[in-house]
């Protein structure tokens, strides 16, 4: 896994800003709140670049019987642009390194570009024009099957869990609310996903993902956030036959620290800790998160 890890970190360094921005994004939107990608206030012409590193894993099945362990290191590179004061368009491309080990200690490794996400967020209501205290938005998007199918050295196709892409077209839609009050800010969202059938007649189950978070910012340069992320999903199926593992509900406690080392730069570090896990025959590890966002 050393080569994929070095590739991910090298690509992340390419997104570091090389020069000072021409304008302050906080001044343009009238709000100094430190925000991660997707939580920013819109203003016409805002362009934000970001990268996020995530390390996570899960185990399906019964230990010593039919268990299969998945570990992934993933880097997402994203661009968001606001062509209008009420509209933000975003594109996200992941680079993934996956390792799958079954109960017989057989192992598969795959790494490469994953499936491209494109989305749009339309702000449909705000309580005032400049520096609003409340925002409501609708979100829509789709994951496209851009990830290549990977093969082992002997030419055989890697299993589905070792592939960075699913080969499916997965639309999503939802609602989000943001609130700002002095040193505090709040976020709540609900997104529904409806995956289509992908490679080998495999289809992930439809899911509803929610997020609620509160952030306290005592200084212009740093803030702390605590949230709860959850996912309720149907079991995946192959050619209409439900899989034995998967489907159910899981919730994560999500503490984060945000830091701004310079104008228009936000670094975020955190962890997603599963505290409720009602997924069927699936146990999940905590998710380590490190991200960088930069406004041009």
Helices, strands, pairings?
Blueprint: H1 2-13, H2 25-29, E1 47-60, E2 68-84, E3 87-102, E4 107-113, E5 116-126, E6 134-144, E7 170-181, E8 184-193, E9 202-203, E10 207-219, E11 222-233, E12 237-238, E13 241-242, E14 248-262, E15 265-277, E16 282-284, E17 287-295
Antiparallel strand pairs: 1-2, 1-16, 1-17, 2-3, 3-4, 3-5, 5-6, 6-7, 7-8, 8-10, 9-12, 10-11, 11-14, 12-13, 14-15, 15-17
Written description of the protein model:
By secondary structure, the protein is mainly beta. Helices cover 6% and strands 57% of the residues. The chain contains 2 helices and 17 strands. The strands form 2 sheets. The chain has a 12-stranded antiparallel barrel with strand order 1-2-3-5-6-7-8-10-11-14-15-17. The protein is elongated and about 60 Å long. Keywords: Signal.
